[in-house]
Predict the structure.
Amino acid sequence: VQLVESGGGLVQAGGSLRLSCVASSSTGSFRFMGWYRQAPGKQRELVAHIVSASGSTGYADSVKGRFTISRDNAKNTMYLQMNSLKPEDTAVYFCNARSAWDNFWGQGTQVTVSS
C-alpha cells in the first residue's frame, strides 16, 4: 500500500490549506486513518483520525475547531482541511493508515505558516 500526501505549502497565519492523502488501495479497507505531524526537534504527534468501524473522528486539542478530517472512499482519499492556521502548526504532515496487520505511512508534506 502506498500513501501519497499533497497540498502542503507556505501560508500566512490565519490562512487555510487542504491536505490530501491518496491511497493505492481502498481506504475503506483500513480500520484507522489519521494525520500526524512532526515539527523540527519534536516528536511526531497525532493531529486527527478517523475510526472506520464507527466513523468517529478525533482531534488533538491544539487543532480542535480549526481542522477537519474527512475521507472519500470512492476516491481512496483522505483529507485534512486546516483553517485559521497558526505558526505553531508548521510541521511535516504525514498520512497514516492501519489495517488489521500493517501500518502504512506516506512520505509527508511540509506545511509552513508564517506570522
About this structure: The chain has a mean pLDDT of 96. The two ends are 37 Å apart (CA to CA).
